[in-house]
Amino acid sequence: MQTTSPASSAGVIGEAGAAIAAPAGPARRGIAGSAWEPYLYLLPAALIFTLFVGVPVVGTVVFSLVHYNGIGALSSAEWAGIANYTDAFTDPKFWEAAWHNLILIPYYVVLPAVLGLIPAAMVQGMKLRGSAIFRVGLFLPYIMPGVLIGVVWRWLLNPVFGPVNDVLTRLGFDPPTWLGDFTWALPTVGVIGAWAAYGFCYVVFLAGMQKIPADLYEAARLDGASGWEEFRSVTIPGLRREIAVVVSVNLINALRAFDVIKATTDGGPGRQTEVVALYMINSAFGVNRVGYGAALAVLLAVITLVLSLLTLKLFGDGDD
After folding, report:
1. Torsional class of 226: left (φ above 0), alpha (ψ -120 to 50), beta (otherwise)
2. For FRET with 4, which of 22, 137, 183, 284 sits at 20 to 30 Å CA-CA?
């Protein structure tokens, strides 16, 4: 019987281990690990953004420079240059719609900010239990579709069977037809917009208050500050960035207001609630002035961008 010495066995094992441990030849380098890899991860999002944002924006700018009725072939469009823009600046209906947007700004910006700040301060100051459920309930209107909000409020404010007028009548008041009255229609739409937005303001402000150091409140109390003085000297300055976010978002909503107004008044009575976005849609698809409607869209986008940047600049100064 043939035996193998320990030395020879160790040599065989060593050679096998060396063979196993020996690195293979240089791997073929593909896209993975190359300089192009990060861009490949961004490619799907870039394609979606280009298809659904970039192309429509460029198309809108192009249409704003032509006269086109939206019915015939694109070859029937006539070059207009800046004629659609000059028409907008001399159009009294455009300025009337812009004035309505301006009136809505206090309702869409200031009112929901105040309505969101007060309960946020109460919840934060009293440390109420169940505040998470309270937060979800207040935030719910903000994520509801604007059309749904408009339909619900149109039912609530119906002058014949609406519960709001029914309650007011039982209390001895003579309520108006809120959405059909020339005086009350626009303020009513503004209040509906404020109701839809104040939950967002509440959530943002409450999150901002939770990051304010408690030491600042303790120092204010040691200095003898009252609750109002704490709120004015500690809470408000600590919410500077949150205020910038709330004002910017709500300002954009005020300038592009459309769905709630379309679902409640459709710009009426008369033209009392017609805003720029609604006038833009009516111009492009109602009277077949696609080029003019596109020009209004570009102007609205530019105005919204400029005012948003000014707002962020105003409230952003002094940030750490």
Report:
1. beta
2. 22
Which residues on adjacent β-strands are paired with residue 314?
Answer: none
Per DSSP, the residues of 199-212 read HHHHHHHHHHHHTS
- In tens, the pLDDT along 269-315 reads 999 999 999 999 999 999 999 999 999 999 999 999 999 899 888 87
pLDDT band per the 50, 70, 90 thresholds, residue 50 = very high
Residue ranges of E strands in the chain? 66-67, 78-79
Buried b (16+ CB within 10 A) or exposed e, 271-294: ebbbbbbbbbbbbbeeeebbbbbb
Q: How far apart are CA 320 and CA 317, in angstroms?
A: 9
| Domain segments of the chain as ranges | 93-316
Residue 75 in this model has a pLDDT that exceeds 70: yes
For residue 141, give every residue at least 6 positions away whose Cβ sits within 8 Å of its Cβ, in sequence order, or none: 149, 195, 196, 199
| Cα distances (Å, whole numbers) of residue 60 to 51, 109, 282, 295 | 13, 28, 16, 8
Global pTM value: 0.83
> According to CATH, what is the number of the domain 93-316?
1.10.3720.10
pLDDT for 250-276, tens place per residue? 999 999 999 999 999 999 999 999 999
The set of residues, in sequence order, having a beta carbon less than 8 Å from that of 207 and lying 6+ positions away, is 242
pLDDT over 80 at 206, yes or no: yes
* Residue matched to tokens 């060593």: 14
Distances (CA, A) of 297 to 31, 164, 259, 277, 292: 42, 36, 16, 7, 9
Which tens digits make up the pLDDT trace of 109-129?
Answer: 999 999 999 888 888 777 666
Q: Which of 237, 260, 242 is nearest to 108 (CA)?
A: 260
Phi, psi of 90 (to 5 degrees): -105, 10
- In the block, tokens 């111009």 appear at 283
**269 class by beta-carbon count within 10 Å (0-12 exposed, 13-18 middle, 19+ buried):** middle
